[in-house]
Design a protein that fits this description.
This is ABC transporter ATP-binding protein. Keywords: ATP-binding, Nucleotide-binding, Transport. One of its GO terms (molecular function) is transmembrane transporter activity. With about 280 residues, the chain is of the alpha/beta class. The chain has one domain (about 10-25, about 35-240): P-loop containing nucleotide triphosphate hydrolases (Rossmann fold). Helix content is about 40%, strand content about 25%. The protein has helices spanning about 1-10, 60-65, 90-95, 115-125, 130-140, 155-170, 185-205, 215, 240-250, 255-270, and strands at about 15-25, 30-45, 45-50, 75-80, 80, 100, 175-180, 205-210, 220-225, 230-235. The strands form two sheets. The protein has a six-stranded mixed sheet with strand order 6-7-8-3-9-10, with helices on both faces. Helix 4 (about 115-125) packs parallel to helix 6 (about 155-170), helix 5 packs antiparallel against helix 6 and helix 6 (about 155-170) packs parallel to helix 7. The longest helix is centred in the last third of the chain and has 18 residues, at about 185-205. It is globular, with a radius of gyration of 19 Å. The two termini are about 20 Å apart. The structure holds adenosine-5'-triphosphate and magnesium ion. The site of magnesium ion has 3 residues, from helix 2.
Length: about 280
């Protein structure tokens, strides 16, 4: 079908890329290599999950990609714009227009309503608000009846859906999400992941998402694993079981298999295991 042909052509296009990225923190004997020559391309209309142990460089990679942190060397491109050599003013413009960021801690303004939070980035940058798109997004995230509520009057899942709607509002080229379901229970996680996945499928949104949760990662089209600042696995459309297997193989102790069993139980309980 022609629609498929078009989406395949678009999907082959790289939206964001890192090339030979390095980042160290500290000096002398206290030096930490957070990113060790990382090169990766992110394609339009795909959802990529980034997994890996604590301290493996996941957040550092996201921050460098989004222009929130500066690499020591290497190049970051977003829509063919060289993020790694932009001035602060250029970075601000890029982040407002091309990049959405979703944090684990939601980062909503407590004194503003859900609607005001969603529209804030556009208000700040004095951009025109597309009401039809706003209504549509609110409809998709299921927040119609919560728009006048403040964050404290919303559940964690609802707050994160506000943050997702805020990230989608400017139709960014790419959304970076750092453990977007890290503070959510499994039901709310399912809602947020379902929304992110639908934005990929319906609007060709590009999403790069850090997660520790194999269930969350199984929503993705691709799963990258980082260890010690390097990409050690790059899996295309892995199943939940394939993702589990990577971590089971890496760990030799019994805690890994316990985690695996727990996760498998969760998966069957959730009834959400069949994303593909
Ligand atoms: N501002 C900083 N100053 C010093 N070291 C830092 C800083 N930020 C990160 N690091 C170090 O860089 C390494 C990578 O950190 P990063 O936050 O990217 O890990 P992560 O994979 O996101 O971990 P987590 O899963 O715990 O969030 C860690 O060893 C961390 O301690
Ligand atoms: Mg992190």
């Amino acid at each position: 079908m022609s629609e498929t042909a078009v989406s395949n052509t678009v999907a082959a296009h790289t939206v964001a890329s890192a090339s030979d990225l390095t980042k160290t923190y500290g000096t002398h004997d206290a030096i930490v290599t957070a990113l060790d020559h990382v090169s990766v391309n992110f394609e339009r209309g795909k959802m990529t999950a980034i997994m890996g142990p604590s301290g493996s460089g996941k957040s550092t990679l996201m921050h460098c990609m989004a222009g929130l942190d500066t690499p020591d060397s290497g190049t970051v491109l977003v829509e063919n714009l060289k993020v790694s050599s932009m001035t602060q003013k250029q970075l601000t413009k890029l982040r407002r227009e091309q990049i959405g960021f979703i944090f684990q801690s939601f980062n909503l303004i407590p004194t503003l309503s859900a609607e005001e939070n969603i529209l804030l980035p556009l208000e700040i940058s004095k951009r025109k608000i597309d009401r039809d798109w706003f209504n549509h997004i609110v409809d998709v995230v299921g927040l119609q009846s919560r728009l006048t509520h403040r964050p404290s009057q919303l559940s964690g899942g609802q707050q994160q859906r506000v943050a997702c709607a805020r990230a989608m509002m400017s139709r960014p080229s790419v959304i970076f999400a750092d453990e977007p379901t890290g503070n959510l229970d499994s039901k709310s996680s399912g809602e947020v992941l379902g929304f992110l996945k639908s934005s990929v499928q319906r609007y060709n949104q590009t999403i790069v998402m850090v997660t520790h949760d194999p269930r969350a990662a199984s929503y993705a089209d691709r799963v990258l694993v980082l260890a010690d600042g390097r990409i050690t696995n790059d899996m295309k459309e892995p199943s939940y079981e394939e993702i589990l297997a990577v971590f089971a193989n890496e760990g030799s102790d019994s805690s890994q298999s316990t985690q695996k069993d727990d996760a498998a139980d969760d998966a069957s309980a959730m009834q959400k295991g069949s994303h593909r």
